Amino acid sequence: MKVYLLLAAIAMALTIILTPAVRWTCLRFNILPPLRGRDLQKKPIPRLGGVAMTLALIITMLLASRIPYMAPLFTGTIPWAVMAGAGAMCALGVIDDIIELDWMAKLGGQVLIAGGMAFGGVQLASFPIFGLTLGSSRLWLFVSVFFIVGIMNAVNFIDGLDGLASGMIAIGAGSFFVYSYIITRLMGAASYATTASLIVIALLGVCTGFLWFNFHPSSIMMGGGAETMGLVLGAAGIIVTGKIDPTLLGRQQMIVSALPLILPLSVIFMPVLDLVVTSIRRMRRGKSPFVADRSHFHDRLLVAGHSHRGVVAILWMWTAIVCVPAVGLLVFDWWVVALVALIAASVGVAITTREFPKEERSQEEPAA
Hints:
Blueprint: H1 2-28, H2 49-64, H3 78-99, H4 103-119, E1 127-129, E2 132-134, H5 138-158, H6 164-186, H7 195-214, H8 226-240, H9 253-267, H10 269-284, H11 297-303, H12 308-328, H13 334-355
Antiparallel strand pairs: 1-2
């Protein structure tokens, strides 16, 4: 555990050091993309914070490869595939932020990157359920790519407010680390060093460090970072799945075995819900679901007159309400978790209702 905490601190420190350097570079060379119709800030600010986050993540993992406790993880291809995928996804995100790629070109790039990671070992090979292990097939390759691409786009969808995406990913990464660490102990592993735990603890440190600059009012945006962080989180879920012996999990083996895939989805519950609802609203207006505008949940709440930080805090709260109980299934019976989750959700509904009344001042959000 001490090694993991050290690596989280290193990732956070690197992000805090690198982010001002990236911001200075953007200002020095005038890398300030013009304001878009959907942007909330009043004047252009640097958007390439994802570069600092990705560099911090990769450097942290490279340093981990030099630590004897973690070094055995790097004898395989998976950590290297994750680092390569993160770097490629960040580059694609930066290009998109600067010149705004056509959605088909962007999606094609995402599929290629996820596919490259899958061929590098980041793919579902088996899935334990009802005491049986469903073996590998070509289908798992396509499922893995679809899973990663879906999660990275869901995270990118919600990256519209200062600190929102980085805070949600930090909450999810912390929960995922607890899950990964506990499941490793339950499996009776000789070493608690796992690739998934390493990835998410580094992700937690990176997102926490970036919040120093990204919480409202932000001095730099997460350009090239949201999709990258989503890619890394999705990869962690895939890496854990298939390394679980369901016979050691007792009565809840089906639920707990599926948690590596459920956790990334629970982390992005709000982005996925936002993605579905927003896409439907866009298509009903005759637009492509991939054309960006200001019809997201957070945009509509801001239009209704709510504060920037208030909207972020509420969405963080709901991320925790959905994510934390999922980890609780490892320790407690499902009915205990369900009861606590129900109470937490009731409190969340009460807070949300009080802070965000149903009435909106505008019935139609502004389009780009």
